[in-house]
Amino acid sequence: MIIKRLAALGCCAGVCAVMLAPCARAQQALPAVPGAQVTQLTPRAGFFSEPSIAINPLHPEQIAAAFQAPAAVSYSQDAGVHWKAAAGVPPANYAQSGDVSITYDILGHAILCYIAFDKLGTPEYWAHNATRNGIYVRRSLDGGKTWDPNAIAVDEQATRPIMPFEDKPYIVADNNPGSPYAGSLYVGWTEFTLTKSAILFSRSNDGGITWSPPNEISTRSGLPRDDNGAVEGFAATVGPDGVVYAVWSDATSIVLASSADGGRTFSSSRKIVDIGPPYFSIENVKRANGFPQIAADQRSGRVYLTWSDYRNGDVDVFCSTSPDRGSTWTRPVRVNDDALHNGADQFFQWLAVDPSDGSANVAFYDRRGDLVNHKATVTLARSTDGGQNFKNYAWMDRAFDAGGQFIGDYTGIAALNGRVYGAWAVVPPQRRARRRSSARAPASPPGTILQAATADFRRPASK
After folding, report:
1. Is 126 part of any domain?
2. Which of these, 456, 236, 449, lies nearest to 357 by C-alpha position?
3. What is the full DSSP assignment across 367-390?
4. pLDDT tens track of the chain, all 463 residues?
5. Residue 118 domain-assigned (yes or no)
6. Range of 399's domain?
């Protein structure tokens, strides 16, 4: 959900100075990501957050990253070495757009999914006084450089009394040659009404040109507010046999529904993991959650699930796997490898399983280097043994303080052929204008920047 920015809270100059050394010492304990490169996608600070990143399976040197607000795309044609902003992406007929996700389909076309609206309803109770809104896709036939001028509606609502608000969609492609539904595209999201929240699902069999009428796949409805109690945080993946696995948060559980017929029908949604409340407080961050992600190993069929919660006091990232198509799940494994109960939060994780080697890759904000739990870096955790153990790598070593700003509801990660790509929002250091007056100048306006990063596990890590 797009949220208004708050003024940066800043941090005590003494505390910030004191914390630089502990941050550096803690990050030196982590090995560096091999072949790391971090690139700034946005030329200046603004309201940028909630990135999604994807790799073209037909041309792996083509990478696309989407973010908000409004909906925007940057693309790379040389495996993340250089990036350019795509023109003409935001919808011209809506005041706001965001909650983006991006994928490539089986033909190598980039598909962008986003919400668009003119005005939000009552805060957190979005269906109250909502105006027209909907979920849309845009297509790029050249890997993300140029985009079709017309948006395609997955589901849209005209302004009228007592109308729903469509929120937090995510798009998934079936690019598995062995799947009977190869080429299909799937979108799931939360629909808020005045009385409930529900998970809806739609599919496309023609590359995103047309979409099926939405189907409600959440067996149990949630509360109608966008905080604890809603059914929310849809994510999905497709197994090597074409089975669609969809997960979301429902109170203090993650639930799963699956489809063996290309998304036409789903099993009843059922609880698979107990978690803490999906929304929780992170110091100096406007809003945070531990919504789940799911991904399938295209070689073995093993299904991976990640999320975060505060069962250990501070927030940790967890992983559970299923070797039997979602029937049973392993005991949760802690993904971040810092000391237990150390008071450091790890949050906004995202998951990608490399279809070429089966490695599970998880990126997350990491505060293990800050004794007061304010500053964060980005860590990449990687498992090559089916999710039993994760090795942590430092992906970004310059810590930042979010300063009370909105840095998103999620980050992004993608992996293919031993290369991993990530995208996230950071808050740059606040600068103060020079003045002749001895009075302290006010801080510069708050804002975030978007960064994209690469990692290359095809090369041996430096010693």
Report:
1. yes
2. 456
3. -TT-TTS-EEEEEEEEESSSSS--
4. 544 332 333 333 333 332 333 444 344 589 999 999 999 999 999 999 999 999 999 999 999 999 999 999 999 999 999 999 999 899 989 999 999 999 999 999 999 999 999 999 999 999 999 999 999 999 999 999 999 999 999 999 999 999 999 999 999 999 999 999 999 999 999 999 999 999 999 999 999 999 999 999 999 999 999 999 999 999 999 999 999 999 999 999 999 999 999 999 999 999 999 999 999 999 999 999 999 999 999 999 999 999 999 999 999 999 999 999 999 999 999 999 999 999 999 999 999 999 999 999 999 999 999 999 999 999 999 999 999 999 999 998 799 999 999 999 999 999 999 999 999 999 998 754 444 444 454 455 579 999 999 999 996 655 4
5. yes
6. 13-428+444-456
Beta carbons of 186 and 171 less than 8 angstroms apart: yes
In three-state secondary structure terms, 16 is: helix
Domain-embedded: residue 77: yes
CATH of the domain at 185: 2.120.10.10
Parallel, antiparallel, or unpaired for β 84-85 and 96-104?
Answer: unpaired
Diameter of the chain by CA atoms? 71
pTM flag (> 0.70): yes
Q: Tell me the CA distances in angstroms from 25 to 18, 294, 369, 463, one per residue in order.
A: 12, 33, 7, 18
25: three-class secondary structure by DSSP? helix
- Count of structural domains, the chain: 1
Assess if residue 45 is contained within a domain: yes
Contact 336, 349 (CB under 8 A): no
172 vs 168: CA distance, rounded Å: 13
Pairing of strands 279-280, 270-274: unpaired
436's CB contacts (< 8 A; 6+ apart) are none
C-alpha span between 164 and 162 (Å, rounded):
7
Residue with tokens 């994760």: 390
